[in-house]
Amino acid sequence: MEIKVNAIVTRSVDYKDNDKILTLYSLEKGKITANIKGVKKPKAKLKFASEPFCFAEYILAEKGGRYTVIGASYIDSFYDLRLNLQKYYLSACVIDVINNLIEDGDEDTALFTSTIEAIKNICYTSNEKVALAYYLNYLAERLGYGISETACASCGEVINGRVFFNYLDATFSCEECRTQSYSEITLDTYTAFNIVKNAEINEIKSVIVDDGKATKLIKFLLYYLSVKTEVKLKSATSLNEFFAL
Ligand SMILES: [Zn+2]
């Protein structure tokens, strides 16, 4: 049986002499694994379809629940991600999140669309940090870890001075109300979070967040996701090292 899926390659691992095993994140079937044959030969027609970030319509042959790529028509390769170190590290986080935090076969149209949108915004706009922060917050919500309130959880006031966050129940607190379960975060992180949380996906290009604040927000969201999911993302470590340069 043959099926068609719109998918992006999130992982590509060498297999046998000339083959690869791909992780495809698809609109129609969620995350699936597929074999692609002969792509390491120099003139292989489907070589492009085995590269990470290749976004294409894949034709898959299914046999006994296993997929083999038999054709692909290219939609986008997001080539520019390879030309800019910052974009490269930011987009690697998106791919890492898909590989490690999304369940196999978990089809979800809204999540797929947001993922592609995030990669597009990182690749083609100059607001790449905001694009990643928006996506990480959206993903946290979809995974059931949404940070719903930004006012102080005890007194209900908008926080202006020192800000504290409880990673367990995902609430903020002002200095007066905080208890021991709260850790201090920067006001910059809090300010940036409020802006990004209230933004709409179609306005990401033009949302203004100071570059340094956006960096702090990304670090905060990646750390928050790692606490909630208990998954340590390698890309988060690499990104933090890149930010520290
Ligand atoms: Zn308070």
What do you see in this structure?
- With 245 residues, the protein is an alpha+beta fold.
- It has two domains: 2-76, Nucleic acid-binding proteins (OB fold (Dihydrolipoamide Acetyltransferase, E2P), Beta Barrel), CATH 2.40.50.140; 82-244, Recombination protein O, C-terminal domain (de novo design (two linked rop proteins)).
- Helix content is 36%, strand content 24%.
- The protein is built from six helices and eight strands, in the order E-E-E-E-E-H-H-H-E-E-E-H-H-H.
- The strands form two sheets. The chain has a five-stranded mixed beta barrel. It has a three-stranded antiparallel sheet with strand order 7-6-8.
- The relative contact order is 0.12.
- The chain binds zinc ion.
- Zinc ion (ZN) binds at residues 152, 154-155, 157, 173-174, 176-177.
Write a concise keyword list for the protein shown above.
245 residues, 8 strands, 3-stranded antiparallel sheet, 5-stranded mixed barrel, OB fold (Dihydrolipoamide Acetyltransferase, E2P), alpha+beta, 24% strand, elongated, de novo design (two linked rop proteins), binds zinc ion
Q: Helix content range of the residues, please?
A: 25-40%
Dominant shape = elongated
Q: Report strand %.
A: 15-25%
One letter per element, helices H and strands E, the order comes to EEEEEHHHEEEHHH
Low-confidence region ranges:
none
Distance between the termini: 50 Å
Number of alpha- plus pi-helical segments:
6
Report strand order across the widest sheet: 1-2-3-5-4
In CATH, what is the homologous superfamily of the largest domain? Recombination protein O, C-terminal domain
Tally of separate domains: 2
The radius of gyration over CA amounts to 20 Å
CATH architecture of the largest domain: Up-down Bundle
What small-molecule ligands were found?
Answer: zinc ion
**How many β-strand runs?**
8
Topology-level CATH name of the largest domain:
de novo design (two linked rop proteins)
